[in-house]
């Protein structure tokens, strides 16, 4: 039994993958690359390459996971890839079942969460059983939270099928669901046992979703790696054409950056990990304001990134021309960079932002940039400055 539409048959061509842990030359594609996330006993490996879905069972077997497992996927990804995941797990001796939820942020709800628990109980998953999160960011957040809380916590493996999930949300162990009041207000830290980024799945990703994932890629250039930002400016045409060589390098670099940040601040206690929220304060507010329907996550983050860049020029040392570069790159990708709010919607946006997890003492806190690659978290920003910047990015 599944939640939402059932998964139908999908064929995945088998591609043999070899593992290389070394760093390839910039324009050389290895069949598979790995990035280690070093967290002591919670450490795990991110695998990046083609044909990884067919090797899912082998990866899980090496992790010595229990026999029973549940693949949690959605109504978009399930029909394409669930059957291939089931076959790979069965060939490795596992007993998988599929739970399919309706695609989109609406799946990250208390109602769907409860339905997933019921399915896992019906399939008799035990403490040594595990969950496979097969999909994008929403599926990863939901499935990870299911795993974090079912039977007080069982293992899970991320199989990221969207660009956004591969470069960002599948790594780091932040899992959760939304409330009507705001995004990810209920959640936990629960690290996956492994992350598989099969680049083949990006070939079927809708253009809108691919562009949205690029917002998180741009973020990494802004917060940590100006050379990555310059590479995006130089090679954007190849990236948008989904050139596998270029994508392999970009995904691996983003995963490396995030693994370094997570390794330094797993539970967001020192402030290091908070830099990953660049563009997300306004972005999450816009998502909530639109009921998670008008803008998907990466589009809202794009708008929030432009706002954060303008605030950085206004309150920090980021030159205006650098804020322009950030906006121009997002525009070249095809992401929204301007939005107009009526007075009523602007007030609602402030209300939504004040429910964000980053608020402290009722004050809005932003990650702001001093320069490309150098950002500072936890910056208090007066409402007057936020309003001034919202005027600047109005259509």
Structure description:
With 395 residues, this protein is an alpha/beta fold. The protein has 2 domains: 174 residues, Rossmann fold; 130 residues, Up-down Bundle (Dehydroquinate synthase-like, alpha domain). The chain is 44% helix and 18% strand. The protein has 13 helices and 11 strands. It has a 7-stranded mixed beta sheet, with helices on both faces. The protein has a two-stranded antiparallel ribbon with strand order 7-8. It has a two-stranded antiparallel sheet with strand order 10-11. Helix 5 packs parallel to helix 6 and helix 6 runs parallel beside helix 10. It is globular and about 60 Å long. The N and C termini lie far apart (46 Å). About 7% of the residues have low confidence.
